[in-house]
Amino acid sequence: MIKQKNLTAFRNFDPDSFIIMNAELVKDNTKCELLEARSGDYSLKVIQDDKELLINSMRDPKQEAKRFVQKIEKQSGNFIVIYGLGLGYHVLEAFDQIIMKKENAKLIVIEPSSKIFLKAIEINDFSKLFENKNVQFSIGRNTDLIRDKIGLLFKMYENDSIKVFEFNVYRRLFPKFIDEVDKTLKNVLSVGVSNYTTVINYIDEWHGNILENLEHIIKSPGVADYQSSFKDKPAVIVSAGPSLDKNGHLLKKLKGKALIIAVDTAVKPLLSIGVEPDIVVCVDSQYANYRHLEGVKLDNAFALLSPIVYPEVPKMFDGRSIFFNFFFQLSFWIEEHMKANGILVTGGSVATVAFDFARKIGADPIVMVGQDFAFSYNYNHAVETYWDKNFFENLSKAGILQNEHRQQIVESGKTIIEADDIYGRKVKTYRVLDDYCKWMEYECGQTTGTMINATEGGILKQNVKNMTLDDAINDHMTTNIDIKGIILDNFKILTKKQVYDFIKKLQQVNDNLDFIDNNSDKGREMVRTLYDKLKRDEFDQKYKKLAIKVEKLGVEMEKRIKIGSFIVEKFQTKFWPLLRKLQSNESYNSLKGDEKKLEELNLKYEILKEVSQDLSPEFKKAQEKVKEYLKSL
């Protein structure tokens, strides 16, 4: 009975993980045996790779769970990752004592064995955990799933750090997988910190771009529609590294024999040698990046786009766009209420997005061209990019292009280091490019299939086969493929009803933004009145009634901003830096407790007003555009 209740809740609230868990079950060679503990509860004996170990205490597993959670409580941090479910006593205790009591606390449970998971749900009721939005389970040995779970839960403005706790003997049972998870967490966190800094700087621009792009997002498929669509078919990822000039001309041979995926900076160099890619990948939100595509003619290429991309880009590919999601709350909200486009993970560069797309569509082999991650031949990038065009247009006296590249490298302000290229020669690169290279090498090692580096230069060496592009073509890319046919067969768009339902969600957001806008000034006015009365020690009946009103409005405002996680995100990214600034102010620190609370409340209403006024016009405009699209269906 408990097992069925658990399975139903797990399937209903996390269907993707439920499917993965069942798939992992087939290849799980773990053996489990329930044992009765002295306390009358159960312990679990596990046999894995000839190791026979007890997961839970044979004396009293519930007391053991309490001690485990007490260790967690002694640590700072409200984002908890637990390696190992066992029979789950410690997970249930962590849920009761931390998740249900600590603001913004999040929990991810990583259980490498589907069979252990199935034993646990026979013994304990986890249905409340499966239903809770602050708890996620990753069942099986899939590091991509773990990365996605963290992306869904971890918010830098709410969660100060990720704290990892290993339950008992899990590292001894699954050493290789736990080591992989360690690396994944480190990688995700470093990218998360970078992404959070970016979000703070660009949140207004990103909101604006997403809402302007909404009419294109709503009539385009997502990467989720292309899962395994190119299974066992070759894909070539073309970047604009300097080595592209060396072998890029060979890509002409590949048309119709491999899916050619080009990052946006590589498009002009490719067109200059007569190669139109099948898919162009664009991620960046800024006009400066759009310049790599400005003015180009692409009659047949499709575009793989992030929702924040500069709005002129989807217009170029109208009817030929495929969108992916990334770790930004407005795009998550769209996924929740419109459709799940699917997430692509970025390691910091457009090429890493292209790589994640290639593996999600099942491409094999995945071949990389122009992926130097270094300044091969003392060049910064391939010729014919926008940067070179700009150099020639502004050339007022004789100049050497190689010198211009060297100047770009030196003047970038980025840390320059030395590395060994694929031939063992010393080559210069940016430290950040070296980081991207390490990300790519690690992910290649985690990906099933053949990974080929056909750049013929640069520093990408680990977990790939380094070979010439000519050899890669002859060995792996000789069969004709109906590339456009596959893309069009999976080009799925929303039904009329789905669009109509989404318009209703947009209306809800607009109604709530109007409420916030209209009531923020009232809130500030009431706070000012309370502050004046507080200063005069007027704690009369009017003061009490007004205090109750302010409290009620605060509760209502909290409810209203939670209509969309993106409103909370925008509010938090603006509010917390200003609150910290306020708290460091001498005059603020001289105030009494209630005075401080009123100062903070006043700041909250001020930011709420700003957020509502920023978002409301853009949302109303987006709603009207979607209404127009609905009429055309």
Query: How are the strands of the biggest sheet laid out side by side?
Result: 12-11-10-9-8-13-16-17
Strand content: 5-15%
Number of helices: 25
What overall form do the CA principal axes indicate?
globular
Number of strands: 17
Helix content: 40-55%
Task: Decide which structural class fits the backbone.
Answer: alpha/beta
The major beta sheet can be summarized as: 8 strands, parallel
Average predicted confidence as pLDDT: 86
Unreliable segments of 5+ consecutive residues: 386-402
- Indicate the radius of gyration in whole angstroms: 27 Å
Distance between the termini: 47 Å
Report what the structure shows.
With 633 residues, this protein is α/β, with parallel strands linked by helices. It is 53% helix and 12% strand. It has 25 helices and 17 strands. The chain has an eight-stranded parallel beta sheet, with helices on one face. A four-stranded parallel beta sheet has the order 6-5-4-7, sandwiched between helices. A three-stranded antiparallel beta sheet has the order 1-2-3, with helices on one face. α3 (61-74) packs across α4 (89-99), α14 packs antiparallel against α23 (565-583) and α23 packs antiparallel against α25. The chain is globular and about 85 Å long.
For the structure shown, list the relevant keywords.
633 residues; eight-stranded parallel sheet; single chain; alpha/beta
Task: State the gist of this model.
With 633 residues, the protein is α/β, with parallel strands linked by helices. The protein is built from 25 helices and 17 strands.
